[in-house]
Write a structure and sequence with these properties.
The complex is a heterodimer of chains A (111) and B (114). Chain A has no helices and eleven strands. In chain A, strands 2, 4, 5, 9, 10 and 11 form a six-stranded mixed beta sheet that branches. With 114 residues, chain B is mainly β. In chain B, the strands form two sheets. In chain B, strands 2, 4, 5, 6, 9, 10 and 11 form a seven-stranded mixed beta sheet that branches. In chain B, strands 1-3-8-7 form a four-stranded antiparallel beta sheet, with no helix packed on it. The chains are: A mainly beta (111), B mainly beta (114). The interface between A and B is medium-sized, with 21 and 24 residues.
Chain lengths: 111, 114
């Protein structure tokens, strides 16, 4: 079993839809959680970084962490075609800087 | 966010040659740099962690004699793929971490070994 599970998609939605992306993890030692966006043939771009359980909002993006359920989510409101990319969840343990990534979810926003 | 550059962005080489990839943090000092490899439609796999001035720590299954990592300064780390073979063809991405908890990624280097 992988430490971090993420549905690879692809996920196709119409422009303006609310998108929900999710990851589950098995190791309670993960304490820091990140969401990255990766366009084709580019490096990942950091979107959100969270530590505590609860919600964190930044513009159209909301990151949600539920440590008791070992479940994290990224919500994208008013999705745009430019949001079409692969979204990677990542997490790390306290005291370690290395990240463990999910497999990534490919998102396609149709105009 | 912080800026990390990689050079070259793309390289094509013959089997048996060595290839060096540079990773630079442009606007911050990176105490730790990471090297990842990504195959098509797959996620990033950590290869090694390098700290400035010390030997790199390699992940299980990564040959340290094949993938030489040097972290000579707080802004530069290099990955050298020695005696490259076609199976080494991949997308190599570095990331850098400074005083913050997050990592910032470079744009990646696409390596094609013929």
């Amino acid at each position: 079993q992988k430490e971090v599970e993420q549905d690879p998609g692809p996920l196709s939605v119409p422009e303006g839809a609310i998108v929900s992306l999710n990851c589950t993890y098995s190791n309670s030692a993960f304490q820091y959680f990140m969401w990255y966006r990766q366009y084709s043939r580019k490096g990942p771009e950091l979107l959100m970084y969270t530590y505590s359980s609860g919600n964190k909002e930044d513009g159209r993006f909301t990151a949600q962490v539920d440590k008791s359920s070992k479940y994290i989510s990224l919500f994208i409101r008013d999705s745009q075609p430019s949001d079409s990319a692969t979204y990677l969840c990542a997490m790390r343990r306290t005291g370690r800087r290395a990240l463990t990534f999910g497999s990534g979810t490919r998102l396609q926003v149709q105009p | 966010g912080a800026v990390v550059s990689q050079h070259p962005s793309r390289v094509i080489c013959k089997s048996g040659t060595s290839v060096k990839i540079e990773c630079r943090s442009l606007d911050f000092q990176a105490t730790t740099m990471f090297w990842y490899r990504q195959f098509p439609k797959q996620s990033l796999m950590l290869m090694a962690t390098s700290n400035e001035g010390s030997k790199a720590t390699y992940e299980q299954g990564v040959e340290k004699d094949k993938f030489l990592i040097n972290h000579a300064s707080l802004t530069l780390s290099t990955l050298t793929v020695t005696s490259a073979h076609p199976e080494d063809s991949s997308f190599y991405i570095c990331s850098a971490a400074g005083g913050e908890e997050t990592q910032y990624f470079g744009p990646g280097t696409r390596l094609l070994v013929l």
